[in-house]
Amino acid sequence: MPLANNALVLVTDGRKTLFFRNEGDQNQIDLRTEAHDERDDADFNRDLASDAPGTTQQSGGYGHSTYEETDFKQLEEDRWAHNAAEEVNKRALANDFDALAIIAPPKTLGELRKKLHKEAERRVVVEIAKEMTGHSIPDIEALLTNETKPAELADV
């Protein structure tokens, strides 16, 4: 399905979130940056995970079992995706867009899907499981153009 004029495009990866608006039409995508947010997490995991994993004594036997260390970086990336979904939900409920395109890595895309309101889900026209936050706007436009091409043109 081609990406309509005024469609909202979300590009996120758990560290960076970009919102674009398609100022073009179905034949020529023209993305304009609407909002962006990025976090710096170079030392994030080291600062939070200063303790060793916990242990517990096993019942009915000898020895100790070690708990798996919490991946604080992954938890923060999941929270970041949930925040992006909340923003999309707020915009959907305010009728800010009729069509939504989401581009995110597979894991982030899965977290987004968990938190999307039914009204936002209804407006999703394309989901692309790919990391694109570090790419240029023309690269994102080209990807969307290729993914939203009508079926009869895609085979040409």
Descriptive key words:
about 160 residues; 6 helices; about 25% strand; alpha/beta; two-stranded antiparallel sheet; globular
Task: Tell me about this structure.
With 156 residues, this protein is of the alpha/beta class. The protein has one domain: eRF1 domain 2 (Nucleotidyltransferase, domain 5). 37% of the residues lie in helices and 24% in strands. The protein has six helices and seven strands. It has a five-stranded mixed β-sheet, with helices on both faces. Strands 4-5 form a two-stranded antiparallel ribbon. Helix 2 (72-93) packs across helix 3 (106-115). The longest helix has 22 residues, at 72-93. The two termini are 16 Å apart.
Detail the topology: elements first, then pairings.
Layout: E1 8-12, E2 16-22, E3 31-38, H1 44-48, E4 55-57, E5 64-66, H2 72-93, E6 100-104, H3 106-115, H4 118-123, E7 124-129, H5 137-147, H6 151-154
Parallel strand pairs: 1-6, 6-7
Antiparallel strand pairs: 1-2, 2-3, 4-5
Helix pairs in contact: 2-3
Gist of the model:
The chain is an alpha/beta fold and 156 residues long. The chain contains 6 helices and 7 strands, in the order E-E-E-H-E-E-H-E-H-H-E-H-H.
CATH superfamily: eRF1 domain 2
By DSSP (H or I, 4+ residues per run), the number of helices equals 6
Q: CATH fold name, please?
A: Nucleotidyltransferase, domain 5
**CATH first level:** Alpha Beta
The helix-and-strand class reads alpha/beta
* Rg (CA only): 20 Å
Point out poorly predicted stretches.
none
Approximate strand percentage: 15-25%
Shape: globular
Across the major sheet, the strand order is 3-2-1-6-7
Mean pLDDT: 83
CATH architecture: 2-Layer Sandwich
- Number of β-strand runs: 7
In N-to-C order, the SSE pattern is: EEEHEEHEHHEHH
**Largest sheet: number of strands, sense, barrel closure:** 5 strands, mixed
